[in-house]
Amino acid sequence: MTEQDHRAATSPPPSPGQVWLRSERPRKQRVTRERIVETALALLDEEGAERLTMRRLAERLDTGSTTLYGHVATKDDVLDLALDAVYAEVDLPGEPGPDWAEDLRGFMTDWRAALLRHPWSAGLLGRPMLGPNMLAREEFLYSVLARAGLPVTGVSDAAYAVSNYVIGSTLMQASWQTQPKDARKAADEHVQTQRDRYPTLAAHRRMAATDWDATFARGLRALIDGLAPAST
Questions:
Q1: Domain coverage including residue 35
Q2: Of these four, 48, 113, 165, 183, which has the most CB atoms within 10 Å of its CB?
Q3: What's the CATH number where 17 sits?
Q4: 177 and 122 in contact (C-beta within 8 Å)?
């Protein structure tokens, strides 16, 4: 067994997050990691994560797969790098503002906007969050919640609550908006025809006319207001 074969046999299997645990070797090549990420983002935005392959990415870059493997080991590496680039689009203030709730509201709103610009991204957020842009924004989120006066365990609980709200609402919006408008209207009409069985749904649910931005803002306000008493 050669030394290379030995390393391959003893290395852990590839998995999400591994790209952040390896050092990138400097290379003088036409295709850089930055170009790979930029091209992968465009491909993902056009076609989604399911259709991303190393071969198709190499074709888009007008190069061979071997060139890609000089920068990334697996498709998971590409997805991790692309996700971190999405997080780079979420603005962070230079200094904390006077109101932790306003800082939190602005951050969550910007985060949602970034995910919606890349509809595939929210569905991949169960991966290890180890990229520098991801970690910087998670640090900001935890620091804002710590300023709210939450106990140590409360900070983590609140971070999960607000993060899951953003991710869940983004997933629902991205999925629902891929449906034809006629399908949304038909769903509302179906509930209306059974209003005797579902009176509350018939009175309040209007999926075809959902104002996603306003609905998100109201839900986020209620969530933040629920955290506020802990700071007093």
A1: 3-86
A2: 165
A3: 1.10.10.60
A4: no
